């Protein structure tokens, strides 16, 4: 345990698995009180158990970021439980089945945009709404190297949502740095989580594919993404405003 975030309260959405879980654990190791949020209580409780076992402090909160009333209640609950909201990490991303633009079902389009873009906006709306009246804070959004930095055929809906998330991050950063709220983003490429696996792909097949497709020769580790998030949220990054760190092993170099 270290003390970089001691006395601070951190909200991590999408904190039940993968990158979100790694982020929650990393903040707890550095002294923060962490609230992990998501739609499924089971994975959230698993994250809390891991934090507690490591000597950290965490609680779980069930919320759907596409529902304004649930996001508002989430932020209010964090503040009621811990007295503050100092850092928020918005880590929500959903995929839909691949399809060319003209063939995307309308429901799939709305599913992606509701979660990846509108959900991000709603999260920042209520996070900033609290922070700007209580001494400021830091927000880090988890975007993707797919979008503003790279496109892949048949993944246009996802890439569009994440490109918009990158612009939304920068716009919010400009709008609210005067309120004492610093907003930045990380944009991972392939990371060693279930989200980067193809249907029916074995671990060996995935490793071979990553070795072929990623200049660094491997997928990223969730902990590497978490380290970048903690940097952007820390006092050491006080001059980073509207920054987007692309962490993809050279894919978009």
Strand order of the largest sheet: 3-2-1-4-5-6-7
Write the CATH fold name: Rossmann fold
Please identify which CATH superfamily we are dealing with: NAD(P)-binding Rossmann-like Domain
Tell me the Rg in angstroms: 17 Å
Low-confidence stretches: none
* Major sheet attributes: 7 strands, parallel
Name the CATH class: Alpha Beta
Mean pLDDT: 96
> Count of DSSP E strands?
7
| Count of folded domains | 1
Give your account of this protein's structure.
With 253 residues, this protein is of the alpha/beta class. The chain has a single domain, classed as NAD(P)-binding Rossmann-like Domain (Rossmann fold, 3-Layer(aba) Sandwich). It has seven helices and seven strands. A seven-stranded parallel β-sheet has the order 3-2-1-4-5-6-7, with helices on both faces. Strand 2, helix 2 (41-53) and strand 3 form a beta-alpha-beta unit. Helix 4 packs parallel to helix 5 (156-176). The longest helix is centred in the middle third of the chain and has 26 residues, at 106-131.
Q: Could you give a quick summary of the protein structure above?
A:
This protein has helices at residues 18-29, 41-53, 68-82, 106-131, 156-176, 203-213, 222-233, and strands spanning 9-13, 33-38, 57-62, 87-90, 137-142, 181-188, 244-247. It is of the alpha/beta class. The chain has a 7-stranded parallel β-sheet with strand order 3-2-1-4-5-6-7, sandwiched between helices.
